[in-house]
Amino acid sequence: MSKGYIVCVYESIKDNEALKIYATKARAAVEKYDGKFLVRGGKNLVTEGKNFVRTAVIEFNSFEKAKEFFYSSEYQAAHELLKHTVIRNHQIIEGS
C-alpha cells in the first residue's frame, strides 16, 4: 500500500504566536491519525524557484489516512487558526 503525505510550504507567516498555537493543535491531530513529521521547518537551501519561509512534510500510512487527517474536525480546527495569518500551499500526495 502506498503512503500518503501532507506537504505544506509557507510563502509568508504574519503571526508566529498563532503558528505556535496551530502547531500544538495540529501535532495532536497528526498523532491521532498515526502521522509522522518528516520535515517541520529547519534549515533549507533553495536551488531553484521560490524561497519559502517554512516547509512541513507529514507521512501517513496511506493516501486515504492523510485525507482522513486533513478533513478531520481536529485538524480543521487547527487549520482555521491560520486562515488570515499565513499564505501557504497545501497538498495531499500519494507516495511510496
Q: Can you characterise this structure?
A:
34% of the residues lie in helices and 34% in strands. The chain has helices spanning 16-32, 63-70, 73-80, and strands at residues 3-13, 36-40, 54-60, 86-95. The longest helix has 17 residues, at 16-32. It has a four-stranded antiparallel β-sheet with strand order 2-3-1-4, with helices on one face. The chain starts with a strand and ends with a strand. The protein has one domain: Alpha-Beta Plaits. The chain is an alpha+beta fold and 96 residues long.
CATH class: Alpha Beta
Q: Based on DSSP secondary structure assignment, what is the total number of beta strands?
A: 4
CATH-defined topology: Alpha-Beta Plaits
General form:
globular
Q: List the domain count as a whole number.
A: 1
What structural class results from the helix and strand content? Answer: alpha+beta
Q: Report mean pLDDT, rounded to a whole number.
A: 94
Q: How many helical stretches?
A: 3
Helix content: 25-40%
N-to-C series of helices and strands: EHEEHHE
How is the quaternary structure best described? single chain
What is the makeup of the main sheet?
Answer: 4 strands, antiparallel
Cα(first) to Cα(last) distance is 8 Å
The largest sheet has its strands arranged as 2-3-1-4
The appropriate CATH architecture is 2-Layer Sandwich
| Unreliable segments of 5+ consecutive residues | none
Radius of gyration: 13 Å
Q: Give the percentage of residues in beta strands.
A: 25-35%
Keyphrases for this structure?
alpha+beta; globular; 96 residues; single chain; Alpha-Beta Plaits; four-stranded antiparallel β-sheet
